Amino acid sequence: MLITCPYCGPRDVSEYSYQGDGNRTRPDPASTDQEAWNAYVYDRLNPRGEHHEIWQHSGGCRAHLKVTRNTLTHVISSVGFARDAGHRKSDGHRKTGAEA
Amino acid sequence: MAEYSVFSLLRNAFSGNRDWKPAWRKPDPKPSYDVIVIGGGGHGLSTAYYLAKEHGITNVAVLEKGYLGSGNVGRNTTAVRSNYLLPENIHLYEHSMKMWENLSHDLNYNVMFSQRGVLNLAHTPAQLDDYARRGNAIIHSGADSVLMTPAEIEWLMPGIDASGSARFPIIGGLMQWRAGTARHDAVAWGYARGADRRGVDILENCEVTGFIKDGDRVVGVTTTRGEIRANKVAVAVAGSTGHVMNMAGIDKLPIESHVLQAFVSESLKPFLDTVVTFGMGHFYVGQSDKGGLIYGGDLDGYNSYAQRGNLPIVEEVNSEMLALFPSLARVRVLRSWGGVCDMSMDGSPIITTGPLPGMYLNCGWCYGGFKATPASGWCFAYTIAKDEPHPINAPFTLDRFHRGAIIDDKGQGSTPRLH
Ligand SMILES: Cc1cc2nc3c(=O)[nH]c(=O)nc-3n(C[C@H](O)[C@H](O)[C@H](O)COP(=O)(O)OP(=O)(O)OC[C@H]3O[C@@H](n4cnc5c(N)ncnc54)[C@H](O)[C@@H]3O)c2cc1C
Ligand SMILES: [Zn+2]
């Protein structure tokens, strides 16, 4: 299986670490809605077909990627940076280069 | 007289083996049944068998989308053991172990259950301490377990690298002598025949394509062989659980499907007469009666419904084998394959009524459900017949995750690929 990293190009799956299901959104850290937390931690769509998932190019540029992959055929139909899809963990806390 | 015996062997030998009956019929689906079991794997077939045998419910159909044994029951590496840490798991798997010990007699079918022992190797003092703790928990719950020294291990398996210069020197191990292996196809065929002879219809090439509902209640299924109705619909489809439950309108479950690969080497002379697991990676190996080494390791590690895996795991598993048994370096791999495992969020199964009225669910077996085949079917049949769980499977509910009552034997948390 090859994943085409937007920075590095097509690389073998062994260069990547699987971060799991990319369909989940973490509740607001201040949320006390137990059901929402339970659903986030335990419930999965687990589709047979197109699956949105997060991979990290840990053996390369280390970017987190949002990948759409078919779980039946392993065909990858799209790869983008996870941050572009709203998967940045620290949105709002991030300093620009000049501030850092 | 039993259908299979020395006498029937002789009688059929003299008549040229022309008079054997097929082990199960190939009936056409009836319009309705008391119980439908979806999935003709080990668990579905044993469920049907115990529904008929223990509860007298014989108007039952098992619906299998392919041929019987085409799923994980025919793809696993056949290790049977009951050496778990948590009491819920030990009770379930030890119940299963006791059933294995009498299974060939009960089914009148040789499942070749061989109590050759399963040994977990320890390579660090902390690991050995952990094994001692697990061994005590196992003994406390009534199963068997014993610590072994490196010298005993070397005596038991001369091919292993027990030298101090091994990459991960062996400092001991935890053995369960009553554990072992069984012939997986025979388990499927034996349960199928036993269920069939008691009146159960086994419907192969009958894929469930949807559920028929009356309001919320499940009252039947649509299949590639027509509509079939039932008072009770039981789901035991292992790796396909997410896909099948989705058809019933349950879009999320505490399950991910992952692919696990297995390997068989060319035949060797007797080399290893127990099953052994590596403690510094994920690897285990045993030897079949035909001489092939049967071995496997970790999941590929990403969601998959494909019954095949990728090359990095092939390399990893084989290099782990060589770390333990350097003498196998020139042995050739004959075959490899993959099976789709229903990985649950705590590594333990789900055997329960619901989640919809008229429905019953058996899933979450990860890559360890073969050993549970007898107990799983036995508990599931009880649950279906009585509409409540047996005390053995009462902890294995679907709502335990949201109630915080998880049964996480390895303490890995909700990352299913690590269980
Ligand atoms: C490589 C590998 C090695 C393993 N090694 C071990 C081991 O050493 N020890 C151990 O204890 N366990 C092991 N396991 C796990 C074990 O094989 C499974 O947990 C167990 O077999 C699952 O239950 P089953 O036999 O009912 O599953 P299956 O045999 O997979 O049965 C499910 C059936 O449902 C059918 N199905 C799916 N969808 C539909 C549909 N829509 N309509 C009708 N039918 C459908 C499938 O075709 C399949 O036949 C291993 C698994 C794998 C893949
Ligand atoms: Zn990259």
TrEMBL record, chain A:
A biological process term (GO) from this entry: tetrahydrofolate metabolic process
Domain of life of the source: Bacteria
Annotated source species: Pseudaminobacter soli (ex Li et al. 2025)
One MF annotation (Gene Ontology) recorded for this entry: sarcosine oxidase activity
Gene3D superfamilies per the UniProt record, alphabetical: Folate-binding superfamily
Protein name (Swiss-Prot/TrEMBL): Sarcosine oxidase subunit delta
UniProtKB/TrEMBL annotation, chain B:
Required cofactor(s): FMN; FAD
Catalytic function, reaction form: sarcosine + O2 + H2O = formaldehyde + glycine + H2O2; sarcosine + (6S)-5,6,7,8-tetrahydrofolate + O2 = (6R)-5,10-methylene-5,6,7,8-tetrahydrofolate + glycine + H2O2
GO biological process, one term: tetrahydrofolate metabolic process
Enzyme class, UniProt record, top EC level: oxidoreductase
E.C. numbers: 1.5.3.24
Pfam families (UniProt xref): DAO (PF01266)
Domain Rhodanese: 35-79
Stored PROSITE patterns: RHODANESE_3
Keywords: Cytoplasm, FAD, Flavoprotein, FMN, Nucleotide-binding, Oxidoreductase
Record-stated family: Belongs to the SoxB family.
Protein name, UniProt field: Sarcosine oxidase subunit beta
Species name: Pseudaminobacter soli
